[in-house]
Amino acid sequence: MLRSLLNVMRKEATQTLRDRRMVFLLVAAPLIQLTMFGYAVNLDVDHIPTVVCDQDRTEESERLLQDFFANGTFARRRDVFAPRAAQDALESGEAAVAVIVPHGYARGLGRRDAPQIQLLLDGTDSTRAQVAQADASQFLLLHGAAGAARPGANRAPPFLLSPRIFYNPRLASPVFMVPGILSMLLMNVTAMLTAMGLTREKESGTLEQVLVTPLQPSILLAGKSLPFVFVGLSNIAGVLLLGSLIFDVPLHGSLAVIAVGGILYVFSTLGFGILLGTLASSQQQAMLGAFAFILPGSLLSGYLSPIDAMPIWLRPLTLFNPMRHFLEIVRGCLLKGEGFTDLFPQMIALSILGSGVLGLSIARFHKRLA
């Protein structure tokens, strides 16, 4: 039995390595995608185009505006003379933010009835608008505290905000994105290629030729799947290495945690690939079926948006998504240094999902043979 398994694995590896396109998809494509996605998918918001309407035109108002644009979050595009012109700049798309400093700003510094600074935001890009609002609010809060503390001011300064950011102090997008990219790449490599491998052999007729031999179907499936397990683990190592060297992704936890989680996740994706290969009759159908699963799986994994932000009725569906649990394992281990004890629920969930989908795919494969 062991010799039969090794023979099938050798045959599958030889057949895969002979296809140059397949070798590119297995080795080069994941590394290229990681590099491209790491740079292209950037959630950092800076240089937001901003117009200024300074109605006070004093030294104090200009100092305020210079400090406002100093950190690079906002980019000063041009100055306008009327608030209506600032609103027109937002409507035309010339700017995403407009800052309006009213008359009497300098005279009201340090007073209880100081004029309020108005901020107009373009909400069509909600992420950019939220970042702009939070950054501007924090700046004005600190600036107001400094103004209230000046000599002669007749009010006490408000509290000072002193945030501390854990696990990703620079709020770098690649640190957040690389674990999600890793989960997607493993799904692409293992599930899609396994399904396409089965359908390719069905199209060419070689699968039927192998099945007439005394080889057991379970040995055949194991031999065709195990090479992709090693490919998946090598992809994990390559992504972690490039993520650390190029994007400064930290590794606070143990590699053993990621290895165990990766193996459980790969068994889930391989099971889906085998199941899809038994259902599809051509490689085109297998590819379309894999894409139909990968896109919803990515959206329901917390890769781009938090699961807590999803509707309540949708959140239970994410529990059946292996990509979600693997993503939590990778992020928890890399960024927070969590171990097996902390990530035990995710490991159990991956084990149950992997066993279920793998068992279903094997049963489907045996039924098809019958």
Would you kindly provide a written description of the structure presented here, covering whatever features stand out?
The protein has 370 residues and is α/β, with parallel strands linked by helices. It folds into 2 domains: 2-42 and 172-369, no CATH class; 48-148, abc type-2 transporter like domain (abc type-2 transporter like fold, 3-Layer(aba) Sandwich). 64% of the residues lie in helices and 6% in strands. The protein is built from 13 helices and 4 strands. The chain has helices at residues 2-18, 20-40, 59-68, 83-92, 126-148, 173-204, 206-211, 217-247, 255-279, 283-299, 315-318, 322-336, 344-369; strands spanning 48-54, 74-80, 97-101, 118-121. It has a 4-stranded mixed sheet, sandwiched between helices. Strand 1, helix 3 and strand 2 form a beta-alpha-beta unit. Helix 6 runs parallel beside helix 9 (255-279), helix 6 (173-204) runs antiparallel to helix 10 (283-299) and helix 8 crosses helix 9. It is elongated. The protein starts with a helix and ends with a helix. Mean pLDDT is 78; it is low at 153-161.
Q: What is the number of E strands?
A: 4
| Total DSSP helices | 13
Please give the domain count.
2
DSSP strand content: 5-15%
Mind telling me the C-alpha Rg? 28 Å
Strand-and-helix sequence, N→C?
HHEHEHEEHHHHHHHHH
State the end-to-end CA separation: 22 Å
Kindly report the spatial arrangement of strands forming the biggest sheet. Answer: 2-1-3-4
Are there runs of 5+ residues with pLDDT below 50, and where? 153-161
Arithmetic mean pLDDT: 78
Instruction: State the oligomer.
Output: single chain
Shape: elongated
> Approximately how much helix is present in the residues?
55-70%
Structural class: alpha/beta
Strand count, sense and closure of the main sheet? 4 strands, mixed
